[in-house]
Amino acid sequence: MQKMPSLFSDEVLLRLRRTGIIAVLVVDDPAKAVRLAEALFAGGVEAMELTLRTPSAVDCLRAVRRSVPQMLAGVGTILFPHQVDQVLEAGAQFGVAPGTNPAVIRHAISSGLPFAPGVVTPTDVDMALQCGCRELKFFPAEPSGGLPMLASVKAPYAHLGIQYIPLGGVTMANLPQWLKDPDVLAVGGSWLAKKELIDSSAWDEITRVARESSSIVRSIRES
């Protein structure tokens, strides 16, 4: 069977595979979001997911897109169709959700937002596929069984060219194992910028962690 077409452009897919890590962030200050994006990019992490968990998340996205255009900036925790419109207006380059909600997926597709819904079971994958998604967020990755679980879930769909973005329990320590899976497009990483580092404006430390993580990506993806 022919592989399914992607909702993501070839350019974005190439960038996500190259960077290997999408920094998953909870930020409530647009100025700090900009400094955070700069720090991550300086460390080699070229993609970030600003989660809709704070009242200022959309403003943070708008600030990053304006001030750090080289960063591939998407939005996570998209739970309702109207949020698709909000993040698109603010310049989101992709969207992510923790689960598979057909109404949200349909609105994202009709609006032109590249979208990766969350899956953890074959039923989730089936629903996402029926809606037209080829890139899927595997969440929560480690608590649900880690790589063995992903291997079991993805096996019936391998011929369709599905790619996965595992998130939840992924760390610098197990990053190499996840990246060695050929069906993993990139991992979602919350370890890159922990809340205490953001709160204390520890940008140099965030760059250091990003650089160390990026070196692991290169050792796996360029070998």
Give a brief outline of the structure.
Helices cover about 45% and strands about 15% of the residues. The protein is an alpha/beta fold. The strands form 3 sheets. It has a 4-stranded parallel β-sheet with strand order 3-2-1-9, with helices on both faces.
Structure overview:
This protein has a single domain, classed as TIM Barrel (Alpha-Beta Barrel). The chain contains 10 helices and 9 strands. It has helices spanning 10-19, 30-42, 57-67, 81-89, 102-111, 122-131, 146-154, 175-179, 195-199, 203-221; strands spanning 21-25, 47-51, 72-76, 95-96, 115-116, 118-119, 135-138, 163-166, 187-189. Helix 2 crosses helix 3 (57-67) and helix 4 (81-89) runs parallel beside helix 5.
- The CATH first-level class comes to Alpha Beta
Number of strands: 9
> Helix-strand pattern, N to C?
HEHEHEHEHEEHEHEHEHH
Please report the distance between the alpha carbons of the first and last residues.
Answer: 30 Å
Second-tier CATH architecture: Alpha-Beta Barrel
What fraction of the residues are assigned to beta strands by DSSP? 5-15%
Briefly note the structural class of the backbone.
alpha/beta
CATH topology: TIM Barrel
The domain count comes to 1
Inertia-based shape: globular
**Into which percent range does the helicity of residues fall?**
40-55%
The CATH superfamily turns out to be Aldolase class I
Mean pLDDT, nearest integer? Answer: 97
Largest sheet: 4 strands, parallel
